[in-house]
C-alpha cells in the first residue's frame, strides 16, 4: 500500500508592535515585540501594526496622517514611501501592504523602515520599534519564491494630455493618458490589471477607465470607469483625514475584467501644488 505524504502549510498575519511615547505617563512599561519581518517578491505582503503607548495601552490614531518610509539598508537611499492604511485607528491598529508592482523595482536585500505620524496640530513624531527608543525597524525582501513579473508600461506625468482648459484661466482641470492594451486585447485569460501611481505632494482624484471598442476615440462615450476600490471608481490622493493633506509616495491598485483598452485620468484639486509623477501599468 502506497504511503501518503501530508504537507502542512500555514497562513498567519504578520503583526508588528510599535510605541508612541507619551511623556505625561508616569509608568514606563514598554511593550516587548519583534519589529522585523520578511516580505516576498511577486505577492501582496500585508504587514499589520499595533501602536501602544509606553504603558502598553493602545493609542488612538484618529485624525492623524501616518507615512512609512523605506530605506535601503546598505546604501542609505530612500526607495519607497507609503501611506499607512487604517484598520481600527481608534485602537491603534494599522496596516501597510507591499504590492507586487512596487516590489518589482526593488532589489532583494535588507531595508530599514520608519513610520512618521503627523498630528492634528501639524506637529510630527516617529513611532518606536523597540524598548531602546529606536525609530527604525528592518525587513528583508526575498525573491525566487515566485516567477518574475513581466515588465511594466511606464507612463510619465508628461505623457498625460491636459484637457478642459477653460478661460479665463489657463490651468487644465484634468489630464488623460493614451490608450494602453488591456487583457482582452492581449488574449490573456486571468483579466488581472495592476497599477502603481507615484506622486509628490499631490492632492486630487485618480481614475482608471476601460473600453471594449476596437479603436476607441477620446470621446467619453467610448470609455467606462473602473472601480479602484469597493466603493468608488476613483482614488482620492490627500485630503484624508485633513483637507490640507497631500500624498507623496506610491499607491497600487488591482482590477479584473476582460477589457480591450485601458487609460488613466486624474483631476488635481484646485489648490494642488504637487505632481503626479508616473504610472506603472501591467496586465
UniProtKB/TrEMBL annotation:
Please report the name of this protein according to its UniProt entry. Uncharacterized protein
